[in-house]
Amino acid sequence: MTTLKVIKNRIRSVGNTKKISQTMRMVSAAKYAKTERELKSVRSFGKAAVQFYDLIELNPPIDPESQLVITLTGDRGLCGSIHSGIAKAVITDFQRLSKLSMKTKLICIGDKTRVILSRDHSDKILWVATEIGKKPMTFIDAASISQKILKTQADNKFHQTLIYYNKFINASSYSVSAINLYESGALYESSRFLFYDDITAETIRCWLEFTTVAIIYWLLKEGITSEYAARMNAMESATRNASEMIKGLILSYNRTRQATITRELIEIISGASAVERKD
Known about the structure:
The chain is α/β, with parallel strands linked by helices. The protein has six helices and five strands; from the N terminus they run H-E-H-E-H-E-H-E-E-H-H. It is 66% helix and 14% strand. Strands 3-2-1-4-5 form a five-stranded mixed β-sheet, sandwiched between helices. The longest helix has 78 residues, at 201-278.
């Protein structure tokens, strides 16, 4: 039979967990409000680069011989299945590409997907960027990541680069999305891309570098905002579950206490009755 001391310790332990989850929810809510405001300006900034690709009708290759997959997540947990959702989408993509005998490699921006994907696909991981989500993401951070991605593209000559990220919808929902990151060769193959006399190959290269940074920065902000919203909701659910658990433990404590009192009264009355019969 569970003792009163054990139940009391459980109530205290769950109460401490509830305080932690409440604090984490408030912190996540404050960070979410800030990142959501930043995302509104960054989103238009990043979509401008993507819209250019749509205007010149750039299409990914139908049967690429090699593909580079980039996952944008974070390093921190306690935010539901937001990281595992991207990992599942990448695994599904790998299964499809393996049937086509296509060369695939992986870059993990954020340590969470690295932990999941390294179990079965560690040989595909080229490099990992960490410290994502622990500090506010800046444009300079995105530039460093983009520069390394472009170098990886150039060294390995991938025919297609696909970025998986969490697209923020609202405070309670997000979706796993993918976007193509084009390189200079795709521009030259487009029939609608016009070259003017004063535009040089160096200008195009610089412009592609800038748009790559803009897209990476935008997608990282999308993912971080989704992560804060998911953590806020997860901590709210944890707080609610802790409250319900405490109610159940208090009810169990009162029942156990009442049973203990009743048992002690029975023992006292039985003892008094035995004494009276002897007299």
